Input
Amino acid sequence: MKITINVDCTPEEARAFFGLPDIRPMQETLLKEVQDRMTANIRAMDPAELFKTWLPAGLEGFKRWQEAFLNQTGAKK
Output
Protein backbone atom coordinates (compact mmCIF):
# COMPACT_ATOMS: atom_id res chain seq x y z
CA MET A 1 0.00 0.00 0.00
CA LYS A 2 1.27 3.46 -0.85
CA ILE A 3 -0.07 6.67 0.68
CA THR A 4 0.82 10.13 -0.60
CA ILE A 5 0.10 13.29 1.34
CA ASN A 6 0.58 16.70 -0.27
CA VAL A 7 0.86 19.70 2.03
CA ASP A 8 0.40 23.14 0.53
CA CYS A 9 1.93 25.74 2.85
CA THR A 10 4.44 28.53 2.85
CA PRO A 11 7.90 28.13 4.40
CA GLU A 12 6.79 30.39 7.28
CA GLU A 13 3.78 28.15 7.97
CA ALA A 14 5.90 25.01 7.87
CA ARG A 15 8.47 26.57 10.22
CA ALA A 16 5.74 27.55 12.69
CA PHE A 17 4.15 24.09 12.46
CA PHE A 18 7.42 22.34 13.35
CA GLY A 19 8.20 24.91 16.07
CA LEU A 20 11.36 26.24 14.41
CA PRO A 21 12.47 29.81 15.16
CA ASP A 22 12.20 32.58 12.61
CA ILE A 23 15.83 33.50 11.87
CA ARG A 24 15.08 35.97 9.10
CA PRO A 25 16.06 39.11 11.11
CA MET A 26 19.40 37.55 12.07
CA GLN A 27 19.99 36.38 8.50
CA GLU A 28 19.27 39.84 7.09
CA THR A 29 21.68 41.43 9.59
CA LEU A 30 24.45 38.98 8.71
CA LEU A 31 23.90 39.39 4.97
CA LYS A 32 24.10 43.18 5.36
CA GLU A 33 27.42 42.77 7.22
CA VAL A 34 28.79 40.49 4.49
CA GLN A 35 27.68 42.96 1.83
CA ASP A 36 29.39 45.86 3.65
CA ARG A 37 32.64 43.91 3.99
CA MET A 38 32.61 42.87 0.33
CA THR A 39 31.99 46.45 -0.75
CA ALA A 40 34.91 47.66 1.38
CA ASN A 41 37.18 44.98 -0.11
CA ILE A 42 36.16 45.90 -3.64
CA ARG A 43 36.98 49.55 -2.94
CA ALA A 44 40.39 48.48 -1.64
CA MET A 45 41.05 46.78 -4.99
CA ASP A 46 41.12 50.13 -6.78
CA PRO A 47 44.26 50.11 -8.97
CA ALA A 48 45.43 53.47 -7.64
CA GLU A 49 45.06 52.28 -4.04
CA LEU A 50 46.88 49.02 -4.82
CA PHE A 51 49.72 50.98 -6.40
CA LYS A 52 49.98 53.16 -3.28
CA THR A 53 50.07 50.07 -1.07
CA TRP A 54 52.62 48.18 -3.13
CA LEU A 55 54.86 51.16 -3.87
CA PRO A 56 54.40 53.62 -1.03
CA ALA A 57 57.02 56.10 -2.24
CA GLY A 58 55.84 56.01 -5.85
CA LEU A 59 58.61 55.60 -8.38
CA GLU A 60 61.28 55.75 -5.68
CA GLY A 61 59.72 52.67 -4.09
CA PHE A 62 59.65 50.97 -7.49
CA LYS A 63 63.32 51.80 -8.00
CA ARG A 64 64.20 50.25 -4.61
CA TRP A 65 62.10 47.20 -5.41
CA GLN A 66 63.87 46.79 -8.76
CA GLU A 67 67.30 47.14 -7.12
CA ALA A 68 66.41 44.55 -4.48
CA PHE A 69 65.23 42.17 -7.18
CA LEU A 70 68.40 42.65 -9.19
CA ASN A 71 70.54 42.12 -6.08
CA GLN A 72 68.71 38.86 -5.35
CA THR A 73 69.24 37.54 -8.87
CA GLY A 74 72.90 38.61 -8.93
CA ALA A 75 72.38 40.82 -11.98
CA LYS A 76 73.74 44.23 -10.98
CA LYS A 77 73.73 47.30 -13.16
